[in-house]
Design a protein that fits this description.
3-stranded antiparallel β-sheet; 5-stranded antiparallel β-sheet; 6 helices; alpha+beta
């Protein structure tokens, strides 16, 4: 009985240190009911409105599930919780936001516009910006040379800064620094 209590305490302290439950992530990431997985994933979508086509959040737990799922889809059924822990090390304490922005159909961009993505932390505090923002072009027919129809933005931010923010909002600005979309971020909703 004492051994079981010690093991449970070790599991709970490891989970608290990492921010995700490796066993639960492994269970959710393995093949299962596709409809249930799709419904679970929808919970990580933020409400989008034009020009934003989609916005999503990737917490530590969701990233762990996505990593397990990726290994399972490649046929690596022997992927272990230990291996998951190794792959998760760079993502501990991090939250990623991915936003897809549709460009006006009559745009004349010759190169990717400088859209930006950051988190406004409240009226009296500085915004939370990533050291690096990833911008990927989206083309109409799948490749360079085709018309540019959108931009995929991705930032990774420290969870503790987001949790300390008074009223965090995810903000998208266009190439002239106009706010084109904002979405409230409530980390308490996500595992």
């Amino acid at each position: 009985m004492l051994i079981r209590a010690v093991l449970l305490l070790a599991v709970l302290s490891a989970q608290a240190a990492t921010g995700y439950d490796a066993r639960e992530a492994a269970r959710l990431g393995r093949p299962q009911d596709e409809a249930a997985y799709t419904a679970w994933t929808k919970g990580y979508q933020l409400p989008a409105s034009a020009p934003v086509a989609s916005a999503e959040i990737i917490t530590e737990f969701r990233r762990a599930v996505l990593l397990v799922r990726e290994h399972m889809q490649r046929g690596e059924v022997g992927f272990t919780e230990h291996q998951l822990g190794i792959e998760m090390k760079p993502w501990i304490g991090q939250v990623t936001f991915i936003v897809t922005v549709n460009l006006h159909p009559m745009n004349t961009y010759q190169q990717l516009p400088a859209y930006d993505l950051y988190v406004s932390s409240g009226a009296r505090t500085a915004p939370i910006a990533a050291e690096k923002i990833r911008r990927d072009p989206l083309y109409a027919l799948g490749g360079p040379g085709a018309p540019l129809v959108g931009v995929r933005l991705e930032v990774t931010l420290p969870r503790d800064k987001l949790a300390a923010a008074g009223a965090p909002e995810l903000i998208v600005t266009n190439d002239t620094a106009d706010v084109v979309w904002r979405g409230r971020v409530d980390l308490s909703r996500y595992r």
